[in-house]
Write a structure and sequence with these properties.
The complex is a heterodimer of chains A (220) and B (155). By secondary structure, chain A is mainly alpha-helical. Helix content of chain A is 63%, strand content 6%. The longest helix of chain A has 34 residues. At the A-B interface, β3 of A face α1 and α5 of B. Bound molecules: protoporphyrin IX containing FE. Chain A: InterPro entries: Cyt_b561_bac/Ni-Hgenase, Di-haem_cyt_TM, Hydrogenase_cytochrome.
Chain lengths: 220, 155
């Protein structure tokens, strides 16, 4: 089958991806130190807005961003794994492979737990810094959620390590460059190019996600 | 007879051990309650400082809110010296109080005294004067920080 160079990751999905990397790195850097707590909350809001955007984009976005198109079930994931270590060439599909799909779900799920628990916490060494929902839970619940927040971050670090190692593995051993496409959006694929959703729709979804987070941060 | 004596002794020892364990557990429990209460009080400090900062720096709230917050620091703070009974240092419950408090009690008390003085000064400020409020607020913040730097665990 002839290969064609087409857009596999639309701009919104790429902005989401690198934005999430930025926000997670930022919230890691500002965690632990109570003097940086206010900045930590800002990075958290950024991650939440990105997450909300991505979940909606996973339903109404471009083909390769849709959960329904890339979550193909454990059997497909197993088959992919066999191809990866077998002699047959990997098929050059656009978008996530069936195994990577689970990594995506795990990463998004962990980010959700991470941000979700953070909303209920409070801290600050001298001036109280409160998550927007902190006032609605008692101290015991808050202490428990703090443990959740810390545990989720350990798991998130493990998942990110798996994610990056897997990408390195594809690059080194399966001769498949995944980083380039996530930067430029373009890759060589067989068959029909994925259908792309309109940038206007992405803008509307992004405004919605940003609006929800803004309302949560200022009104709650 | 000896056998009965043996059983009685064993029973007594067991009972003593139980009472002892329960006693320690209860002491541990009261210590944990003390720590929780202390943290709740400090959290009130933090909340008051949030109101004061919002008022002086970002123009949120009213002079009355700021005055009330300063009053909280004075009234709640008055009891600070009673919040640190022995046996409530780091390691018990969620305490972040460094053991140095109990070995340098005189210095700890001095840091507490400078906080009390700064809080009273803040409470007496003319709250419609935002610059003066801001300055007095900064002084209080400095006394909180001075104590935390020496006696509160950094995480
Ligand atoms: C900071 C931690 C990171 C997190 C939380 C993260 C998270 C994610 C998520 C959620 C996706 C799914 C994207 C989507 O479908 O919208 C993804 C995909 C991807 N990420 Fe990351 N990422 C991280 C770091 C990195 C780094 C450092 C690289 C580059 C070395 C990278 C390269 C990629 C690539 C190439 C894909 C597409 C994978 C595929 O084709 O299946 N990521 N990442």
């Amino acid at each position: 089958m002839p290969k064609r160079r087409v857009t596999v990751w639309d701009l919104p999905t790429r902005v989401f991806h690198w934005g999430l990397v930025f926000c997670l790195a930022g919230s890691w850097y500002t965690s632990g130190d109570e003097d940086r707590l206010e900045t930590h909350l800002l990075f958290g809001y950024g991650a939440l807005a990105l997450l909300l955007f991505r979940v909606v984009w996973g339903v109404v976005g471009s083909d390769t961003a849709r959960f329904a198109s890339f979550v193909k079930g454990p059997a497909a994931a197993w088959l992919h794994l066999r191809h990866l270590f077998g002699t047959k060439a990997l098929e050059a599909h656009a978008g996530h492979n069936p195994l990577g799909a689970y990594a995506v779900l795990a990463l998004l799920g962990l980010v959700a737990v991470q941000v979700g628990s953070g909303l209920f916490l409070s801290g600050g060494d001298i001036v109280l810094v409160e998550g927007p929902l902190s006032q609605y839970v008692d101290q015991r619940t808050e202490d428990w959620l703090e443990t959740v927040h810390e545990t989720a971050f350990i798991l998130l670090q493990v998942m990110v390590a798996v994610h990056v190692l897997a990408i390195a593995f594809y690059g080194l051993f399966a001769r498949r460059d995944l980083v380039g496409p996530m930067l430029t959006g373009r890759a060589e694929v067989e068959g029909a190019p994925p259908r792309l959703a309109s940038p206007l729709k992405a803008l509307l979804v992004a405004l919605g996600a940003g609006g929800v987070v803004w309302a949560l941060a200022t009104l709650a | 007879m000896t056998r009965r004596f043996g059983i009685t002794t064993a029973g007594a020892l067991l009972a003593a051990a139980l009472v002892g364990t329960v006693g320690v557990a209860v002491a541990q429990d009261t210590a944990e309650v003390t720590i929780e209460q202390r943290k709740a009080n400090f959290k009130q400090f933090g909340g008051a400082m949030k109101v004061l900062k919002g008022y002086a720096k970002d123009g949120e709230g009213t002079a009355a809110d700021a005055s009330k917050a300063a009053q909280t620091l004075v009234t709640v703070g008055a009891g600070l010296h009673t919040w640190f009974p022995a046996g409530t240092a780091v390691g018990v419950g969620k305490s972040e109080a460094l053991p140095a408090i109990w070995t340098n009690m005189a210095d700890f008390e001095a840091k507490n005294a400078s906080f009390q003085a700064a809080a009273k000064k803040l409470a007496a400020v003319n709250f419609t004067d935002k610059a003066a409020t801001g300055a007095a607020f900064g002084e209080v913040g400095g006394t909180c920080k001075a104590c935390h730097d020496s006696y509160k665990k950094k995480d």
